[in-house]
Every structure is written in C-alpha cells, then in structure tokens.
C-alpha cells in the first residue's frame, strides 16, 4: 500500500506511522506543516514532506491508495486565541485534501474526527472554533462521499494519551500536564469546575482503530473510546498530591457521549488499555 498520513509528525500521527511502516509492503509518507509536529517524532522508514494540506496537490505527486487525514489544528480552548489557524488548517486544508481525493480517485480517506461533536447533547460541536471546524469537516467528508463517491471512514477520538503526548506549552494535554506537574512535585492544575467528564483512550488503541477503519470501515460513526469515563477531579486524585483550581476555560465541554455499536460491529474494536493503569504505571516510575 502507498499510504499518506497527514500530520505524521504529530502525537497520534507519529504512532500511526510507526505501526504502518512495520509492514514492509507499505510505503508511508507524512505531510506535515510542523505547526505542532516535531522532527523528534520522526520514525525511521517514513518519508517526511513539509507542507500544508491546502497545498497537497503541489506536495503529493504519487497518488496514495489511502489517506489517513490527521493533520489539523487540534486544541479546543487554544482555538479561541487562534481561530484563523483553526480555519486555515482545518477548513481550507481539509477541503483541498478532499478535492485531491476526488480528482485523483483516492481509494479511501480516513478522517480523524473529534468526539467534541457529540458532547453535551450534540451542542459540543458549536462550543469552540476547533470543535466547529472538526464537526463541519465530518459533514464535508460525508458530502464528498455522497456527491462524488469518495470512499471514506470517519473515526472519533476521545482524549488520547500515551507516549509522545505534549506535556508543556499551550497545546499540552491534560494527562501530559498532570505527568509533568506530578514529576516536579508541583500542585496539579484543575480547570474549574473539575466535574467536567472525559473518556481517555490510549494511543495504541486509537492507532489500532484507525488502521481497522482504513482496512474495513465505511462511512461515518466509528467512535474510538472506552465506555468508562471520569471527571477531571477523578483523574487528578488518581495522580495524588495537591490540587490548584484554575478559572473555567471557554469551550470546555461538560459531558461525553459515545456509541460503540458500529465500531464493534464493523471493526471488532475494543479498548485494551486503561487510563487508570497508565497513571498507576507512571506513579511507579517516579515514586
Ligand atoms: N489528541 C486527542 O485527544 C484528539 C481528540 C480528538 C481528535 N483528535 C484529532 O486527531 C488528529 C491528531 O491530533 P494530535 O493529538 O496528534 O495533535 P498534534 O497537534 O500532535 O498533531 C497534529 C499534526 O498535524 C500537523 N498539522 C496541523 N495542521 C496541518 C495542516 N493544515 N497541514 C499539515 N499538517 C498539519 C501538526 O503540525 C501536527 O504534527 C487531529 O486531527 C485532532 O483534531 C485528537
């Protein structure tokens, strides 16, 4: 298979590239604009192209069999400070990726959707520039399927954690931040009210789900997350130590929704890792 991963130098994309390139029959190319992607995430055997997805036609000269499209602006509350990036990376970029699929008859696009679309009774989709661009992109992907016959599968991720997650800076993830603070012996910063509910998914489970969706998924609705969920307070307590409350952040959804019927039926996918075990293992390494 000739495979294109957009965002291959990012957190999830690098793990996906790592698994795909293990199969010697695969050629794996990453297209990444290095807005958050890093060279230290590069995996041997993958070809890295620096570029924006809106310029995909210029950068990708050999038509791939499949595109795993992960290369988008990827943070909820930060998107209030950078709505221009959310629009340009996600809306303009993904439109051109879909045009590329249509014109070149790419056999499948797997789109990395966000579970924010399903949160808070469906209102989550409108709660931030990020969530809105991600939710509307799922609809654009569906329309390209209907209008032009572009084959697709849409997967939805739930707070992904695991190796190479960002621990510092404005794009750091909750689990990444708690790891850094706990290691440093500093109080854990919990965004108020702390009762917001999240599901957490290990990146290995996510990658397995993305690849299964690439192999046998068709259409919308592949939620990739656990049935179990926790409040942010619960997670902070699992790490232990002092807690400092921070003010509320805009766009911070309060509830989570997941429907695993289609994922289990079509892909036979189930989570194999738990955030509780991940935190317990982490605590063993520092205590
Ligand atoms: N991490 C999560 O919990 C989570 C949850 C839901 C959805 N997602 C989605 O999964 C995907 C990957 O997220 P991640 O957590 O690995 O984030 P990340 O920021 O580590 O990865 C995104 C990668 O895409 C690149 N990128 C961004 N816009 C681009 C563009 N227009 N052209 C080319 N490259 C571009 C970045 O440089 C980065 O390498 C994103 O689409 C994100 O919305 C992630």
End-to-end CA span: 45 Å
Largest sheet: 7 strands, parallel
User: What order do the strands of the largest sheet run in, or round the barrel if closed?
Assistant: 3-2-1-4-5-6-11
CATH architecture: 3-Layer(aba) Sandwich
In CATH, what is the homologous superfamily?
NAD(P)-binding Rossmann-like Domain
Characterization of this structure:
- By secondary structure, the chain is of the alpha/beta class.
- It has a single domain (2-286), classed as 3-Layer(aba) Sandwich (Rossmann fold).
- It is 38% helix and 19% strand.
- The protein contains 9 helices and 13 strands.
- It has helices at residues 11-20, 56-59, 83-104, 129-148, 174-184, 203-216, 232-239, 261-267, 275-286, and strands at residues 2-6, 27-32, 47-50, 66-69, 108-114, 152-157, 160-161, 188-191, 197-198, 201-202, 219-224, 230-231, 243-246.
- The strands form 4 sheets. It has a 7-stranded parallel β-sheet, sandwiched between helices. Strands 7-10 form a two-stranded parallel sheet. A two-stranded parallel sheet has the order 8-13.
- Helix 4 (129-148) links the parallel strand 5 (108-114) and strand 6.
- Helix 1 (11-20) packs across helix 6.
- The N and C termini lie far apart (45 Å).
- The structure holds nicotinamide-adenine-dinucleotide.
């Amino acid at each position: 298979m000739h495979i294109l991963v957009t965002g291959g130098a990012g957190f999830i994309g690098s793990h996906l590239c790592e698994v795909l390139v293990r199969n010697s029959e695969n050629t794996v190319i990453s297209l990444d604009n290095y807005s958050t992607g890093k060279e230290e995430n590069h995996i041997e055997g993958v070809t890295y192209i620096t570029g924006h997805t809106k310029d995909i036609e210029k950068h990708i000269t050999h038509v791939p069999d499949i595109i795993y499209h992960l290369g988008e602006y990827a943070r909820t509350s930060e998107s209030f400070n950078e709505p221009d990036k959310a629009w340009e990376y996600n809306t303009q970029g993904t439109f051109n990726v879909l045009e590329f699929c249509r014109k070149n008859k790419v056999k499948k696009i797997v789109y990395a959707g966000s579970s924010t679309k399903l949160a808070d009774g469906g209102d989550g989709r409108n709660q931030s520039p990020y969530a809105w661009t991600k939710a509307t992109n799922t609809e654009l992907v569906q329309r390209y399927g209907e209008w032009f016959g572009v084959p697709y599968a849409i997967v939805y991720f739930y707070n992904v954690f695991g190796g190479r997650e960002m621990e510092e800076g404005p794009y750091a993830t909750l689990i990444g931040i708690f790891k850094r603070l706990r290691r440093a012996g500093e109080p854990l910063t919990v965004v108020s009210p702390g009762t917001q509910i999240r599901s957490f998914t290990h990146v290995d489970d996510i990658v397995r789900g993305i690849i299964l969706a690439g192999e046998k998924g068709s259409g919308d609705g592949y939620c990739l997350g656990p049935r179990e969920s926790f409040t942010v307070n619960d997670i902070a307590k699992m790490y232990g130590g002092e807690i400092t409350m921070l003010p509320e952040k805009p766009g911070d959804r309060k509830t989570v929704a997941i429907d695993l019927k289609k994922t289990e039926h079509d892909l036979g996918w189930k989570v194999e890792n738990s955030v509780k075990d991940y935190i317990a293992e982490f605590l063993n390494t520092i205590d």
